[in-house]
Hints:
By secondary structure, this protein is α+β, with helices and mostly antiparallel strands. The chain is built from 10 helices and 11 strands. The protein has helices at 100-106, 121-137, 142-159, 168-184, 192-199, 203-214, 218-236, 242-248, 254-265, 269-274; strands at residues 2-6, 18-25, 32-35, 43-50, 52-57, 60-65, 68-72, 78-82, 89-96, 114-116, 161-162. Helix 2 (121-137) packs antiparallel against helix 3 (142-159) and helix 5 packs across helix 6 (203-214). 28% of the residues are buried. Residues 176-275 form the HTH araC/xylS-type domain. Pfam families: AraC_binding (PF02311), HTH_18 (PF12833). It comes from Gracilibacillus ureilyticus. GO terms for molecular function: DNA-binding transcription factor activity; sequence-specific DNA binding. Keywords: DNA-binding, Transcription, Transcription regulation.
Amino acid sequence: MNRQVLLPTLKKHEYMILPESVGCYLSAAEHEVYRDAGSLDNISIHFVIGGTGFVEMDGKRYTLQKGDAFLFFPQQEQKYYSSTDDPWSIRWIHFYGKTLHSFLSEIGFARFTLWRLPTIDHLEKAHEQLLQEAEQHSFLQLTQLSTLTYAFLSNFINLAVPKESGSKQELDLRIQALLPKMQEKAPEPFDLEYWAKETGVSTYYFCRLFKRVTQMTPMAFITLCRLQWSKQLLLEDRNLTVKEIAERSGYANPSYFNKLFLENEGMTPTKYRQMYF
Length: 277
């Protein structure tokens, strides 16, 4: 069964995001799409909920199954189709908005076309709510349409992991392998772009992956490492002043260092040193 709703593209509107079309195809053996570069001026997301299908890019064919997704930006060449032996079931949406392209690019979504969704339950629910709204009211309730489209996109952003960059386990291992090096370099100025490049993902994805693996942000981890380093200096070299220790630990401002130390240790650096001497 195929469900789809085509909506008018509004040239003037006040919304961040609106859908142009939304649909769901079940066991769609004959589903095949080819669009030349420059054909579409919207963004689209398709995600597979069952069966098998294919996306062709740069002369290569990629197999997609349940939990896989693909994202196309405006003007991109597009070629995707269902397997005839194991027809895919797929949900999709085409959407637009003036700031969406730059927003998605800034958080790293322009770097990849193929994505992996660890779970699709919430995304499928968000998509179904949007599809039902479009089926029942077309474009007569634009605020609701925009809200539901934004909810779907937010779900996708929070769930999706680049398929090309490896499995979830592989990405987690990359973060874990970086931790000793990050600890060693903690007193140096923190460069988020450098660490993201070391992992092979965007800065946005690096922060997401790091939080998933360590349960803290990259900066929180660096702060803990710097404080640990400062505690060692406080006890190992009594000739160093607190100002000098702050600088060696990565803090040019000793007042800020004192504030962080107090917040994390419950006492000032000077008090901490006095406890052991």
